[in-house]
Design a protein that fits this description.
Jelly Rolls, single chain, alpha+beta, 3 domains
Length: 545
Amino acid sequence: MKHEDLHVLIEQYRDGTIGLDEAKRLADAIRRDRGVAARVRLELGFSGHLAQAIEGDDAEDFARSFAERLSAERTSAEFVSAFERRLRPTARTRRLPTSKSSPAPFLLAAAILLGIIGLFMARGPKPPPVIVERREEPLPDLPREERPKPEPPPAPESPPAPKSDVPPPAEAPSAPASVKAPEPTPVPPPPAQKPRLEPTRVARSTAVARLDKVDGEVRVDGKPVAAGVELVTENILMTGPTRSRASILLPDGTRLGLEADATISQISRGPRGTRLTFLQGTLSADVAKQPADQPLTISTPHGEARVLGTVFRMAVDAASTRLEVREGRVRLTRESKSIDVSAGQYATAGTGSALVARSLSPDEIILYAPQARLAGNEWTLVRDPRSLTGVVLEAGQTPFKVVDHVESRPAYATFTFFAPADKEYRIWLRATSLEKSDPWTRDMVTLEPTRAALSQKSPFFGAAPTTAYVFTGVAATPGYTWMSGHGEETKPEPPPLVVKFAETGWQNIRVYVGHPWVRIDALWLSATQKTRPPAKQAPPPSTEK
């Protein structure tokens, strides 16, 4: 179609004077030639926008309704008949404009034609499926540089829009296929957090000692341990109440031995030497030679021992700390007072005790009730003003008989001391019984020296090999009395019981309950007292340094 003819038809449509034949001719031209369709849309676009501005939503609704109707029609005859019906006066259409009428009918016709043009513009190969069906607000006819970027098409296979200066259809804007949606900026993942490690003593400290040997129940910080466990400064080491021992090896070769029911709360090493806190029990030490300015220091509740290299033994109970030195020399300090204890001597630090050094191999060895270590619950320490120290051991009930062998008995009291192997000591026991009704069943107690030989064998155990000996006659004399094996006043005085230890060193005497209500005040091992001492006689003081 020539340019002039197309211009005439557009002007007739715009003026509202186009007839049916001209409308059919214009519609056929729009179908055949996309260029014609583009020109018609361009020239009538402004009119269509005016119609929206003047008529509001009526023109838009009519254009949409007309476009939906066209989507079902496929021939020129159908298009023309539909167009003809739309031009007839109805409730939804208005008469053609006159010189005095409103411009709304004219603008409405422009909107109809815009819908037709948009339909045929979109009828190319692989039309977008939502050109007619989408109900979006038409975009204003802005210059290209001011138009908002259209949304991407719903299907990725949609073809790119044709290259043309004509703006895209108002009803169905679509983005060119070549325009890619901006990819989201990658967000780096958060840095991986390191697993939180609970603080442990081993992580905070360096091992300062090692458990070399373990016998029986030994605990570190309340947990059972075996040999080979390394100890750090904060560890609390405890041995069990019965038949338990532990050997601790320090890095310099010092070896510490713990007896049953012992507690160490701290071992530390620093520029001023090694420090050890010993709370209770019995400790034996073979200390490697220490630098003069870095001694081994052992603190107890009653004092402090400073060691430069020696072999010694220390026993701590609630009342005192007893230090016994076999080799070398140890300085014992209590409340700013100090005493040097040399080989073969001992000293005691505690309330009411004189801080003096005494011989470890004297003729007399005195063991008082407060020095005993208790295992089990058969023995208890009680106060008694009639005793030599004011505190005695009292026997309670026991499920065992006097004739039962002591090897299987778990409850006893232990006296520990240093004694040589070249002396014979007579054992004197100071005891009494509180039983008043039947003294014959409340007057026995059993003593057992370990690693020793006795001059007599107890008749209560027959031929069994044992060093346990049953002392009888405790209740035969009112009040406390001394005895050695037998204490019956009416019988001839038997020879005293003599003990000789197998080797020089730390010795033990265990005391077992024979009958309840027996009280023990003291044990006296004497190389000079050969006859029974009077009941009120106190042992002689030990020889001082």
